[in-house]
Amino acid sequence: MGKPTGFMEISRQDRRYKLVADRVQHYREFTIPLSAEELGKQGARCMDCGIPYCHNGCPINNIIPDWNDLVYQGNWEEAIEVLHSTNNFPEFTGRICPAPCEAACTLNLTDEPVTIKSIECAIVDKAWEMGWIQPQIAKHKTGKTVAVVGSGPAGLATAQQLARAGHQVVVFEKSDRIGGLLRYGIPDFKMEKHHIDRRIAQMQAEGVVFRPNWHIGKDILAQQLLSDFDAVVLAGGSEKPRDLTVTGREFDGVHFAMEFLPLQNKRVAGDTIPEDVSLSATGKHVIVIGGGDTGSDCIGTSRRHGAASITQLEIMPKPPEKENKALTWPNWPNKLRTSSSHEEGCERMWSVDTVSLDGEEGRVT
């Protein structure tokens, strides 16, 4: 498995980012991938662990040591087969997953985990480039019909697996495009949307039918789905945001992240946003309440809009820069994490509980 002494001979090397001054001028991905040779060396660092904790660190139990070894051996085509055996869409996870597998890696005990996420992303990107990813059309049809409500990653993976099993699958999506939060929640600078479109084309070739602009319960009754299909899968996700019930919440200029982020994704897709619903951070002093990934996405988007200033408020205390491995490993540790959007410029404040919002003439100030 890998090179027995690889972890002692080869240092960890990961993908880099393009310069901040360049990347904030656009909404494209800005990661600089490693070369195939460099990735082979990183795969060689994977140890022959008696218990590969990365398996359990990964939420979908990817067979990580196996495809690390295959990349080390230069067998990329078999690597994508192993990767696809547990993950329908590695090009999504290889871009936006926080990589708890690396936190669980044995080499993380010395802060040098295998660059699992980068290797995963490289495998699937190379597979698309080489034409190894093709529709897998079921040889036999069951005659059964399944409705999948919601076209996020869960709905898409469900639909693909059912179609390959021979069922006729129809995916219903209330938005105007397929993809759920992959489409309208994740900024394009983290994951460009042609990755979704490519998978949709593959799934259509496999027999999946997509119906955007269908809001179940509004455009069609749920009971109708039960009557028309043999089975119904509910994969609608959770879109109800947690509100901030403080004085001044009703002021104009206070918005949920999912009011702000989808509009920019629509602009990138070429849509024209009506003036009465358009939101822009250009020239404004932006406060982001919440210190997680969604807040980080709002920071990166606001920076690209040209915000005058950006401040992020986090209710929790500032976490330690380094975790105590003896207490946390192989679990996901509480530690300070600085995202690419943070690096692009913002002030971060900790232990801040928002108790009220001030405003004048109905607008937050």
3D architecture notes:
The protein starts with 5 loop residues before the first helix and ends with a strand. Strand 7 (285-289), helix 15 (293-305) and strand 8 form a beta-alpha-beta unit. The chain is built from 17 helices and eleven strands. The strands form four sheets. Strands 5-4-3-6 form a four-stranded parallel β-sheet, sandwiched between helices. The chain is of the alpha/beta class. The mean pLDDT is 96. The chain is globular and about 65 Å long. It has three domains: 6-130, Alpha-helical ferredoxin (Fumarate Reductase Iron-sulfur Protein, Chain B, domain 2, Orthogonal Bundle), CATH 1.10.1060; 145-234, 3-Layer(bba) Sandwich (FAD/NAD(P)-binding domain); 257-364, FAD/NAD(P)-binding domain, CATH 3.50.50. The longest helix is centred in the middle third of the chain and has 15 residues, at 116-130. Helix 3 (36-44) packs across helix 9.
* Arithmetic mean pLDDT: 96
Question: What is the share of helical residues?
Answer: 25-40%
Spatial gap, N to C terminus: 59 Å
The CATH H-level superfamily of the largest domain is Alpha-helical ferredoxin
The biggest beta sheet reads: 4 strands, parallel
Tally of domains: 3
Highest-level CATH class of the largest domain:
Mainly Alpha
Provide the low-confidence segments as ranges.
none
Number of strands: 11
Q: Strand fraction band?
A: 5-15%
- What CATH architecture of the largest domain do you see? Orthogonal Bundle
Helix- and strand-based class?
Answer: alpha/beta
What's the CATH topology name of the largest domain?
A: Fumarate Reductase Iron-sulfur Protein, Chain B, domain 2
Alpha-carbon Rg, integer: 22 Å
Count of DSSP H/I helices: 17
Question: Any idea what the shape is?
Answer: globular
| H and E order | HEHEHHHHHHHEHEHHEHEHEHEHHEEE
Q: Which strand order spans the largest sheet, edge to edge or round the barrel?
A: 5-4-3-6
